[in-house]
Design goal:
2 domains, 15 strands, 22% strand, six-stranded mixed sheet, Glutathione S-transferase Yfyf (Class Pi), Chain A, domain 2, 13 helices, 361 residues
Length: 361
């Protein structure tokens, strides 16, 4: 999976640009405020249909303009067969995505076409933040190695929504509640099984990577289903009914799943420094990329925002070496070219410079 040419228009403070990308490392340098992160945001938008910086996509559109456009020529299998992917977003909320003229109708389908991993200043929240972020991380991995998982996930959330709506009614419709509870139980179990299969692969890869770090000795990573697996979820929902009705929501099920990372018996976030937490998160993302590559034969594209500020030289070079071993294409930003000097001297790379939103190579 390689971006060959990236084009963008009306993205934040960036001038319209055309980027002829290298197949491996793409280094983007420039002063603070020059638009480096906005360039990564454009690539992310192309693969996810949204920004990683804001929930309000309209704010990504340049002031005074009505729409943004991002497109790319992509060599998906790195065999010389090139396809074109493009997205358009208007300030009225309209969103259109196409691949070779064909309309892409869902964010999941778009993600299949351009699998992206992001590492930025907020990546540590994968461990320090709430369980939802870890579920999203896990579901990204499952979805990209088994595309049928998305349909299963959607069916589950429909059942969850329906059950929660029924719980809020003053008059409980028992037959409907039974129907959606049964659906939710079956889908929760199916989702848990898919996630657990993936977890076996993830633990193996993470352990292999973390073996290179003394601070991660004794680390374990476990999956919590979202309910006590020793008990039947159907029975749990019956016992929880009064509480669920009181709060108008379902307290147990696949939507409450989590990843639990420990060093010995202590939660990793209580044991590790912020820098070590970042390194562990990066190891988890590298593990995902390795699994994705092994299962699909494709490679992720990595976006690394302000890497020199996030990692010391040793950890930075370890990460970049790992990306090179995976043969991933990646885009990384930094203020100064010298921040990447040791790495640049050893690797194939392309360097771009940004100055007040204007791109030069």
């Amino acid at each position: 999976m390689v971006l060959l040419k990236l084009e963008g228009k009306n993205i934040r403070n960036l001038d319209s640009f055309t980027l002829h990308c290298g197949p491996s490392a793409n280094v983007i340098c420039g002063k603070n405020g020059s638009g480096k992160t906005s360039l990564l945001e454009a690539i992310y938008f192309l693969g996810r249909g949204r920004s990683f910086r804001t929930r309000d996509a309209k704010t990504v559109i340049k002031v005074g303009q009505s729409e943004l456009v991002v497109s790319a020529q992509v060599d998906r299998h790195q065999n010389g067969l090139v396809s074109k992917i493009g997205v358009l977003r208007t300030n009225k909320g309209e969103f259109v995505a196409r691949q070779d003229g064909r309309i892409i109708r869902t964010a999941g389908e778009l993600a299949v076409q351009l699998p992206i991993q992001l590492i930025d200043a907020h990546s540590f929240l994968l461990l320090e933040g709430g369980a939802q972020q870890r579920r999203q991380f896990l579901d990204w991995g499952v979805f990209h190695v088994e595309h049928s998982y998305m349909a299963l996930w959607r069916r589950f959330h429909k059942a969850l929504k329906q059950r929660n709506q029924l719980l809020k009614h003053d008059r409980l419709r028992a037959s409907e509640l039974e129907l959606w509870s049964r659906e939710l139980v079956g889908l929760s179990v199916s989702i848990a099984e898919k996630r657990e299969e993936y977890m076996h692969l993830l633990k193996e890869e993470v352990n292999n990577i973390c073996a290179n770090f003394e601070s991660f000795v004794g680390m374990s990573i476990e999956y919590y289903r979202g309910w006590d697996c020793k008990n039947d979820l159907k029975e749990i929902l019956v016992k929880d009914l009064d509480r669920d009705r009181k709060y108008g929501k379902t307290h147990q099920g696949a939507h409450r799943a989590d990843l639990v990372v420990r060093i010995g018996s202590a939660p990793a976030v209580n044991y590790l420094s912020r820098g070590q937490i970042k390194s562990l998160v990066y190891a988890m993302k590298l593990a995902q990329a390795a699994i994705f590559q092994r299962k699909t034969g494709l490679r992720c594209i990595f976006l690394l925002d302000d890497l020199p500020a996030e990692l010391d030289i040793w950890h930075r070079e370890y990460l970049l070496k790992a990306l090179n071993q995976l043969s991933c294409q990646y885009f990384m930003t930094g203020v100064n070219r010298k921040d990447f000097t040791n790495f640049i001297e050893k690797s194939s790379h392309q360097i771009f410079y940004l100055d007040q939103g204007r791109l030069a190579s």
